[in-house]
Write a structure and sequence with these properties.
The chain is α+β, with helices and mostly antiparallel strands. Among the domains are: about 15-145, no CATH class; about 280-403, Heat Shock Protein 90. The protein has ten helices and five strands; from the N terminus they run H-H-H-H-H-H-H-H-E-H-E-E-H-E-E. It has helices at about 15-40, 45-65, 75-95, 100-120, 125-145, 145-240, 245-270, 280-295, 310-330, 370-380, and strands spanning about 295-305, 335-345, 345-355, 385-390, 395-400. Strands 1-2-3-5-4 form a five-stranded mixed sheet, covered by helices on one side. The two termini are about 70 Å apart.
Length: about 400
């Protein structure tokens, strides 16, 4: 039998059958002893009645095994029927055999133990036990003398109390075991969910890593090669017009740009998250490089105070600045550019404004990974990126924190 929470029944057959076999043997022995005692008086009706009541009492135990889990209202028949059988046996054997009170004692302990096994340490089992204990005491008081009553009461307290206490402790230990099993099942389920989540996170991590690699390759190889293509086209045009000196000059610039692109690509491969130690110097270097390559006038407002930003945020901001300047040099045909770069505590503000020809920000041609990468970088840092452009120029703003 299993200890259960109130209102729930779950019998363990491996424990139930040995218990009920023991009850059947015990009650069968008492039945034989009772019939033997009555047999000498030759009261056939009494003998048949006693046999029928003992058979009913034992049969009800086995029916309880089969039906208590299937029929919710079975208990409303079972306990009254058992009570009637027990009282009937005691009344028939009263004055005819001493087995009657001994049977009542054993039957009370058995049915209380059964209730504890079926219902566990619950109020229902407690009230069942209280009822049958009261029945036993009442029958003992009515059908025994005072000396026998107090002797039986002592035996009930000692033997019956020990059995009931054992059942209560057994139920308690079994309940703890059930809780441990349920906890283990919950942990197993949680581990399965955790493994699924870990697999999903790994997949997302790989996806993000691919996107990051695409951004980094665009910011190094793609930009560098695009610049080389433009310079080589210019060389071709100058050679076609016999402007050899100008072509040679551009070739030298192309060689320098190729070396610079190669160095930047190697640095990106060695450490894609590399962040300049000195942010101020890194910003000035980018702006200066832009001036030399584009020939446009560029004004810089720069202030870095108590930088408390994560290195990754700085890295993303520097790449957005680089992409903005590259786009101006390649597409904007701007004569004037202003770069504003402020960092204070955990706030970063970047603005790149030019007076170029502008473009339609709502229309992106296929393969424009620069703008896509800028938006992804803003999303990864939790910052805000805005791009405004018209025929009077373009303004890129990137903000992290509260300005």
């Amino acid at each position: 039998m299993r200890g259960m929470s109130a209102g729930n029944i779950n019998l363990d057959r491996k424990v139930v059958f040995p218990f009920y076999i023991f009850l059947s043997l015990l009650m069968g022995y008492m039945g034989v002893a009772a019939v033997t005692s009555v047999w000498e008086a030759g009261e056939t009706i009494i003998i048949v009645s006693v046999i029928a009541l003992f058979a009913t009492h034992v049969g009800l135990y086995w029916l309880n095994v089969l039906w208590v889990e299937r029929h919710n209202r079975w208990v409303y028949f079972y306990y009254p029927a058992q009570t009637a059988a027990m009282v009937g046996i005691v009344l028939l054997l009263n004055g005819r055999s001493e087995v009657g009170l001994a049977f009542l004692f054993s039957a009370t302990i058995s049915i209380v133990g059964e209730a504890l096994g079926v219902w566990g340490n619950t109020r229902r089992a407690f009230f069942v036990g209280l009822f049958y204990l009261s029945l036993l005491l009442s029958m003992l008081y009515l059908f025994s003398d005072r000396e026998t009553f107090f002797g039986s009461l002592t035996g009930l307290l000692v033997n019956g109390g020990a059995i009931i206490l054992f059942m209560v402790m057994f139920n308690h230990l079994f309940a703890q075991r059930q809780q441990a099993i349920e906890l283990a099942e919950s942990l197993e389920s949680a581990n399965a969910k955790l493994a699924a989540s870990a697999a999903k996170i790994e997949s997302l991590t790989l996806q993000n890593e691919r996107q990051r690699m695409a951004r980094e390759l665009h910011d190094t190889l793609a930009q560098g090669v695009a610049g080389l293509v433009l310079q080589l086209e210019a060389v071709k045009a100058h050679l076609a017009s016999n402007r050899n000196e100008r072509a040679a000059s551009i070739v030298e610039q192309s060689i320098a740009r190729a070396r610079s692109t190669l160095a930047e690509s190697r640095a990106a491969i060695d450490n894609l998250r590399a962040v300049p130690v000195n942010v101020t110097d890194a910003v000035r270097e980018q702006v200066e490089r832009f001036k030399q390559s584009s020939g446009a006038a560029c004004e810089l407002e720069l202030s870095v105070t108590e930088n408390q930003l994560e290195p990754e945020v700085i890295a993303h901001a520097m790449n957005i600045l680089s992409e903005s300047l590259t786009n101006i040099s390649r597409h904007a045909q701007a004569g004037k550019v202003k770069v504003t770069f402020f960092i204070q505590n955990q706030t970063l503000q970047l603005e790149v404004r030019d007076n170029g020809k502008g473009f339609d920000v709502n229309r992106q041609a296929k393969g424009h990974y620069g703008l896509i990468g800028m938006r992804e970088r803003a999303r990864l840092t939790g910052g805000q990126l805005s791009i405004e452009s018209d025929s009077n120029g373009t303004c890129v703003q990137f903000v992290v924190g509260s300005p």
